[in-house]
From TrEMBL:
<dbReference type="InterPro" id="IPR006140">
    <property type="entry name" value="D-isomer_DH_NAD-bd"/>
</dbReference>
<dbReference type="InterPro" id="IPR036291">
    <property type="entry name" value="NAD(P)-bd_dom_sf"/>
</dbReference>
<keyword id="KW-0560">Oxidoreductase</keyword>
<keyword id="KW-0520">NAD</keyword>
<dbReference type="Pfam" id="PF02826">
    <property type="entry name" value="2-Hacid_dh_C"/>
</dbReference>
<protein>
    <recommendedName>
        <fullName>D-isomer specific 2-hydroxyacid dehydrogenase NAD-binding domain-containing protein</fullName>
    </recommendedName>
</protein>
<feature type="domain" description="D-isomer specific 2-hydroxyacid dehydrogenase NAD-binding">
    <location>
        <begin position="119"/>
        <end position="188"/>
    </location>
</feature>
<feature type="domain" description="D-isomer specific 2-hydroxyacid dehydrogenase NAD-binding">
    <location>
        <begin position="193"/>
        <end position="233"/>
    </location>
</feature>
<dbReference type="GO" id="GO:0051287">
    <property type="term" value="F:NAD binding"/>
</dbReference>
<dbReference type="GO" id="GO:0016491">
    <property type="term" value="F:oxidoreductase activity"/>
</dbReference>
Length: 267
């Protein structure tokens, strides 16, 4: 019965999350909705949404719940991402009341995202994308790519030194780069489309977007200097489930949860 479900999972990695949670917390009732962000919420899902106590989900699912104004009894929602920008935008623009505690996954992404950032820095400095294009054209252009900057000559600015930013900073520093830590005490954004178009930025690697999947008519797809990846910089891992399990144990013990969203800071 739907009203016996305590934890509802709605995530692109729902099967793995469900398995991990059930193995570790066999005493709780768990249901995986098998949510697909492209297909959206179906009528069959609504009964479960209305009766669950706890929700573990990708942010787009909760955004859709709020946008559709589906009534719910959630006491606690934990999102599987570290960032909550899409949720914040919907909640603030529509002046919505959550009616529950919202937490984010504030751990488990640092190593993978650090590797992602470092990989793209090296790829850019060594012109890997341009070299691949030359290979496809069967062109030998050694002189064109002979001037490569060593990583030790680079200065890297990192906005925010949470668990992810700190790991990125550590990796860059170990490679000999100069690291500048920039405070993120307020919500910050940049019109990077304008900066790229006007030449202020030499390029951008973009992995997370307000609307996902990124619409096919977005200007970003064809903007020179932009590399788009489909939100894979911090792939799901057992650590996402473990972060939820750790918080669930606090929830059961009626203790304060970790990584409760601070709306003033925006994360």
């Amino acid at each position: 019965m739907a009203n016996n479900i305590r934890v509802l999972i709605a995530s692109g990695d729902g099967a793995n999350l469900e398995k991990r949670v059930k193995v570790t917390l066999p005493h709780i009732n768990v249901l995986n909705l098998q949510y697909d962000a492209t297909a959206g919420i179906t009528k069959e899902m609504i009964e479960y949404i209305e009766n669950a106590e706890i929700l573990l989900c990708d942010p787009p699912f909760f955004v859709e719940c709020l946008s559709l104004k589906i009534p719910h009894k959630f006491k606690w929602v934990q999102v599987t991402w570290a960032g909550i920008d899409s949720l914040r935008n919907v909640i603030h623009s529509n002046k919505l009341e959550l009616g529950c505690c919202l937490t984010r996954t504030g751990e488990g992404f640092g190593q993978l995202m650090g590797e992602y950032v470092l990989g793209h820095i090296i790829s850019r400095e060594h012109h890997f994308q341009e070299l691949l294009l030359k290979q496809k054209q069967k062109e030998w252009s050694r002189a064109e790519f002979s001037n490569i900057r060593p990583l030790t000559s680079l200065t890297i600015g990192i906005l925010g030194l949470g668990s992810i930013g700190s790991e990125v900073a550590r990796m860059c520093k170990e490679m000999g780069m100069t690291v500048w830590a920039l405070s993120r005490t307020k919500k910050m954004s940049a019109p990077y489309v304008d900066y790229l178009s006007e030449g202020w930025l030499g390029g951008a690697v973009l992995d997370v977007f307000v609307k996902e999947p990124l619409p096919s008519n977005s200007v970003l797809w064809s903007l020179d200097g932009v590399l788009i990846t489909p939100h894979v910089s911090g792939p799901f891992s057992t650590k996402v489930a473990d972060a939820f399990i750790s918080n669930f144990r606090l929830y059961e013990a009626k203790k304060p949860l970790k990584y409760v969203v601070d709306w003033e800071k925006g994360y």
